Amino acid sequence: MRSVKIKPGLYPPNDWTKIIRAWTVGLAFYGKDNIFYQIDHKATNGPIKYVVLSMTFVWNFVDLFVVLVSMGLSTKFSQLYRYISDSIRHRAPTSEHCWEYIRITYVSLCEVVETTNQSIGQLVFVSYATNIYFICLQIMYATQRQPFMINKIYFIYSFLFLIFRASLMFWHSTQVQYWSQQPCLLILQLPNEEYCEEAQRMQIYSKRGANLTGIGLFVVSRDILLTIAGTTVTYELVLLTYWNRSQDAFTNKTITLIVILGLIMCYIEYERLERIGVNAKNIIGIIFYLDTVIITILMINFSRKWHSVATQWQYVESVFRCYADHRKQSNLKSMIRNVSSVLIGCGILEHFISKLSLVYLQYQEANFCHWDVHDFPRYFASRNYSFIFKYIPYNILVLVFMEYANAALTMAWTCQDLMIILISQGLAHYFQIIYDQVRLFNNGIMITSEQFWIDIRYQYKLVCSLVDAANDLLAPLIITSCGTNLYLICFQLLYITEKSEDTITLINHWYALVYLVLKMTLVLYSAAMINETSRAPLNICTKVPNAGWCLELDRFINQLRTEQVALSGMGFFYLTKRTMLGMAGTVVTYELVMLKFAEDTEGIGDVAPCSKLAFSKDM
User: Fold this and answer.
1) Domain segments of the chain: what residues?
2) Which residues, other chains included, contact 448 with Cβ-Cβ below 8 Å and sequence gap of 6+?
3) Over the stretch 230-277, which tens digit does the pLDDT of each residue have?
4) Are the CB atoms for 144 and 244 separated by under 8 Å?
């Protein structure tokens, strides 16, 4: 027996005691049938509920205990740090006896940390392991389709609370090592006349610092946060594979994993830029990962909400099927296949050329720096993904997955634009069918009945309603598409204006620029054709003679003149032919701004040859 289900209307209103008793039995048996098949639930339901509740709060108490202990230890080290800092800042003379007192105090604090770590090391290990596992579990549950809204709210809240609690525990536990090592930096500022043997000993002790550990298996430090992020991604992939092996479910969860990986890459790029500085070129890394992650999330949201639009589209298709020209219908299918094949093929080729250029540059780097590279894939992995392979052993499968994730994020740009193009072509096709019916009266002589204009206006309203429904889903993608294409065109123009010594690099930037211009032109033109074909019947309708004039025709003409039928970027702008000219002017303006930014940041963020930062995303 798993649960007791109560059907509405099964009991009379005066029999509520039976309902309450049935629910009590159902709740007792739910998840505990292995217990209540052996003993009576009436006597043990309350105690077992209490035990389960207490065991649930153990997770919170463990993290809270580690946080409070870490706060106490780090506070003592920070107080000692401020005492040293105040002495140096106020130029107070620090004798050898003073440094001896500071060193003894520091060593005592380190001994307290060591003693504390022996007592709570197991709890630190359990806390870290539990939080990593449950973060992976909640990510998996959050991506599942939930039957009720309350389930979805529960999993989202549980995940956010878990992230908050784990972040709090991670941060405070790493503060112990951070503050224990800070005195070393202050001692370096001591003038020579005050630097003594005791200060030197204090410098040696504080350079090593004190830290908590997970039963000696790992040291709790800020460096471990990236390791935890990488471990979470790896465990999430294993957990998702184990949980559901069906192809569709695995695809959805792989996309989620790629999004998480993209966010981690954003953080890594941010840290790198913080170390070396920002210029007009190296900012492309963080923009790439942030933009593609946003696009991927928007595409996932689009796919989840597409069903309602597809149902409406299917109804419109059934209405227009009898009016459509089969030859034009076949041409539309061929055009959709050709556009999709060309854009996806060009996108894959653009990514391949970009990777080929990167491999060539890194090969040239190895020759220039006289680095002996026997295993180039291993060298390529260490230079591009050192933030992963400095924590885990090199594995060709991990490298392949990272390259797949990078390619998937890159193709998000193409898929986003392709989605806008194909939907625009489909919508414009329906307006073209309406125009073909009205075009028969272009000579201004033929007249028709009022019923014809009733049918035409009904068809027009159907397509307009479909445009509005599609635009509600496409609007965020239209904004990201226009913004991304504008920036990337300006970025490629910035590179092309500079002299390049490598032919492969020059080919890469020129091909990328031509591909971007072609893709953006297709997006704007396809979307603009919705507006053009929707207004095309207006010129013909005004030629209808007085004998054929009727109320429905008059209403149709007013609708054509007053209604704005076009895709928009959330109402900020509409995609018409005028927008294409506006975009061309915007490219010129933004390119001038980017050139000025490149001039102002010249020399900032440039990395010396043969540096570890030259091509890698980590130190």
Assistant:
1) 41-222, 280-600
2) 441, 548
3) 666 666 555 555 554 444 444 555 566 666 766 777 677 777 667 666
4) no
